[in-house]
Specification:
29% of the residues lie in helices and 28% in strands. The protein has 489 residues and is of the alpha/beta class.
Length: 489
Amino acid sequence: MVNLKKLTLLHSNDMHGDFLAEHVDENLIGGVSMLSGYINKVRQEEKNVIYAIAGDMFRGSIIDSEFQGISTIEIMNLLGPDVVTLGNHEVDYGVAHLLFLEKCAEFPIVNANLHIKTNHARLFKPCHIIEIDGMKILFIGILTETVLAQCKTDGLIGAFVSVEDAAAEVGKICNTYNAIDIDFTVLLTHIGFEEDKKLASLLDPAWGVDVIIGGHSHTFLTEPCEVNGIPIVQAGTGTDQIGRFDIMIDTDNNRIDSYVWKPVPITAANCPRDPAMEEVIGTYKSRTDEKYGRILTKFVRQLTHPSRIRETELGDLFSDVLKDALGVDIFLLGSGSIRNEQLGPVVTKGDLNECFPYDDAVHMIYVTGAQLKHMLLRMLRDEVFEGAHCEFYQLSKGLVVEYDQATHSYLRFDFEGEPIGDDMVYSVGLQHFHYLNLKDSFDITLDEVRANHKDRVVSTSCTQVIEEALQVGQHQDAKGEGRLILHLV
């Protein structure tokens, strides 16, 4: 007779400081109070419950940014995850600060691949074993260098280069720990849904990986995607939902016998509130409200940013503000820098900082027309429109790009009403993060652009530039169309 035991595995990813519930169509949705209430409810109802977070607890809210993650760690301590892996935004405040935050955490943080380049010493535990009801559950944390671009600011920190490297490391860890009779193995990844599928296809079944819980691409699934016999899941973004596995584990053969997975909406209808959590959040919120409640401006109407892979109203507005204020010919604004889907019509300092939380310096580089065309071809590659989590950019006024995906060619590439000259040199503004990642984002190197002209920093704070412009002008508006015209197949 097969020995079966039930495991309830709850999981979140890409929470991004989404601590507060919101009213949607008169219903209260999300927030860590109801999320905590649901987790506590399940822990009382079920015997064997584990709650895991697949990266990016940080960034995206005023409460997180103002206290540089310390508030988030305190809130997460109350939420009580059993294991957490790192996302790319965990290093936004610096690797040294992340190591400090780890000391504040009352839960294990696992990551198999962040290491010091000189001696390859790991910065975190690669894995964590949870023993529950006689079962040993192994969790392994995975990142790859492609999503860890922020670490390029620290030359001593390295990471896996590819999914293939990550798969090899998973094999090594599994081979090491399988000898102690691991009943169930979970990969906590933060590499994106498409990369998760590639990773699953590379895993040897003998390693015993049972489940991949992913993050980074903010993918909302209604059912798991199975690759190589391994269910892959994600729970979208924020705290509007939580993923739930109910798994029957065959402990004799160390494998899944059967499972059910579903996304659970965090709503007042099925999630009780957690008063202790609300008290802590209220303390932080009262401090940020006092500082960030000041009104900056009033737009003509609410402006939107519904997709990061197309031109948007907020993208037009912010890229134009930075172009005009900093005197560059063209500003390429990282689309992912805009974190909210809408802003306004009344905009407070807090609204702006939550919508645009990345206060980078701005670099002015110089590119030829031919180089600019090459850079934007990289941005418009097919995988971007197939769901890959790649960098995308909002174009400032004056630049008009019409692109045909079927032929992978431009139908129009104009600047100030004239076809762009291949040999002409244009000044381009880039945020610091994107300046550091020219090769990944644009398939061009700093040496190549420096051959045209030496680059320089033109602002130490793009957020301050935008805030000043919004304060000075009222009733701003933006079209969100006419600059990036896409003909997609």
